[in-house]
Amino acid sequence: MVDAFTQLPVAVLSLNPAVDITYQIPQLIADQKVHAVSSRYDPGGNGINVGRGLKRLEVQACTFCVVAGEIGRFLRHQLDAQLDQVSYQEVDGETRINGTILESLTGAQFEVSGVGPVVSTAQWEHLLDQFVTHCNEGLGVITGSLQRDLPKDLYAEAVRRVQAAGGRALVDSHDELLQHAIEAQPFMIKPNRFELEALVGQPLTNQQDIVREARQLQERGVTWVCVSMGAEGALLVTSSSVLKGEAPSVPLLSTVGAGDSMVAGIAGLLAQGASERDALREGIACSAATVMQPGTELFNKETVDRLRGEVRVTQLSL
Fold this sequence. Notes:
Layout: E1 10-14, E2 18-25, E3 38-44, H1 46-56, E4 62-68, H2 69-82, E5 85-91, E6 96-103, E7 109-112, H3 121-135, E8 139-143, H4 154-164, E9 168-172, H5 175-183, E10 188-189, H6 193-200, H7 207-219, E11 224-228, E12 234-237, E13 242-246, H8 258-271, H9 276-291, H10 301-308, E14 312-315
Parallel strand pairs: 1-4, 1-8, 2-6, 4-5, 8-9, 9-10, 10-11
Antiparallel strand pairs: 2-3, 6-7, 11-12, 12-13, 13-14
C-alpha cells in the first residue's frame, strides 16, 4: 500500500445531492398527525455519502455537486463543515429534500426521494469537465440518481472521459444509467443483488448465478464487478479471482448509506494501492459500521477499525 502522500487523486460526482431529513416516530398512522421522537438533518445523495465516507477514512477527495436555492445554501453549509474539498455548480430551482421515517415499534423504515432542480447541458458539462480534470489518472466515482431531464447516457459519457484521461471509473447506479455506463466499460461497478437481477432480467438465487452474470459483464469490458448482498456480505469478481467477503454480525439500525459506504471503503483503499482483498474487506467493514448508525448517519472510523478484523475474505473456486 502506498502512503497518503502518494495517494491517487479521487473525484466524486454528485449531480443530484439532497438534504436528508430523518424522523424517528413510534408508528405511522394513516390520516393522523404523528409527533417525532427525534429528527436530524444530514447532507445526502449517493455521491455526497461517498465523499463523506472518504473524509472519515482520511482519504483526500474532491466532491463535485450541483446545488440550488435556499436548500442548496443549507447543504453547502453542511458540506463545507464535513468535506475537505467541494466544487459547486449553482443552478436555478431548489436542491431536493429526501425523507426517511423510522418506526420504533415495528422497526420499519420508509424512504421518500425528492425531486431535484433542472440542470442545463452547459452546467453539467462544466461540472463534468472539472470532475475529469481533478480525477486525472486517479479514481472517478460516479454514483446515484440523475434529475429526470438529464440524458440517460450521461454516466457513460463520464466513464469514457475519465478513462480517456487515464483514470479508472467506479460506477454505482441502477437501471438505464447503469446499462449505459456498462457500455462505456468502467473499471468497476457495484450493484447490489437486486440491481444486478434487474440488470440481467432474472432472479439470482445463489453465488454461482451472481458470478456467472458478473463474468458476462466482464466480457463486455467491466474489469471488477462487486455485488453487495446485505447481511451476507459481498462478492468481488476480478480478472484473476472471485472473492467472497462475509459481513460481521452487527446490530441493524438503518440501511441508508450502506452501499455508499462500501464504495467509499473500496475506492479509498484502491487510491492507496491496496490489494483487491483488502479493498473488499474495507468496503464491507464500512458498510457494516454504517448499518449500526441511525437514519442517514454514516460510519465512524473507530468502528470500521474494530470491524475490519472481523471481515472474513475467502477466494472461491467458481
